[in-house]
Amino acid sequence: MQPLTHHEIMELVAPFSRRGRHPDLAASDRLVRRLAFRAVEHGDAVPGLPGLREELQLQNPRPGSHLLTRVLSLPGGPEAVLEAEGSDPGELLDRIGSVAPARQLGRGPGFVLARSHRVEAAGSTPPPRLVLTRAVAQFDALVLKLRVPAVAGIPASIELVGDESRTLALPDDLLAVLGWAWDRIVPVRAGWSSTLRLSGSGPARSADAEDKLQRTVQHLARTLTEPPRRFHERALRARWRVSFQRTIPLGTCAALVGVGLVVPQMGLAQESLLRMLVFHAPPLLLVLGLCMRELPRIELPRWPRASRAASWSEASAR
Are strands 111-120 and 80-86 parallel, antiparallel or unpaired? Predict the structure, then answer.
């Protein structure tokens, strides 16, 4: 890339200067064609979240291509990023400015939520369309990170990171009790990971991700403030449903073995279509499983049990 010239900088910052946004040349990088603008303090623009700070950054990797990024940050809190891409910097600034900070940042009982979006042009029908790309929810002893792939059909990834000063023991069906779209949480080095299946594509997929994100955050905020036994009592039916759901792969294998043992006793002809389907079912199911995005887990899950611990930091995972 050719470094930004003085003339190019003047052209790029013109629409921003007219709106009172002045460049921060010390924080800019001409070599990578990136301009930074002076941060703006919004104070308490979002109710309950004082100290809001806004930073703008414009990238011009090649002529006619621009990426404008807005970062909203809180003291000691999560960041919300908003991105807009197009050919006209002034139009990108209008798009970014049309999204209120309260649309991306919010506070609820026991959590602070920051959503990051890509803002797309709406054509002749304002306002611009927001597409959720990732989110961070901060709780008292836990942080949730959600990443939404741009490709439809690929589930969103969930990461739960615990507070280093505390050790939490969370049940693996903590999120799965919310529905079939939520997978179990799996311990990893930094905490726990899981996946969230989304439906639809385009705006419908983003709306589904926003809805399921809100449900997940509210569920965690409520669960983490209650003793572990209360989670078991409130979600008992859902926990049994999750246990049954996890036995489906094992039950399918057992059923195939049983049918395979019974079919020879039925006296079916060698040329029978039913006989051929039964004996070829295992390799066909194996090929089908390999074609799935996530291999089914053949397991015998433990039945749900209530914990006797007074808090999640004392609980034993069940």
Answer: parallel
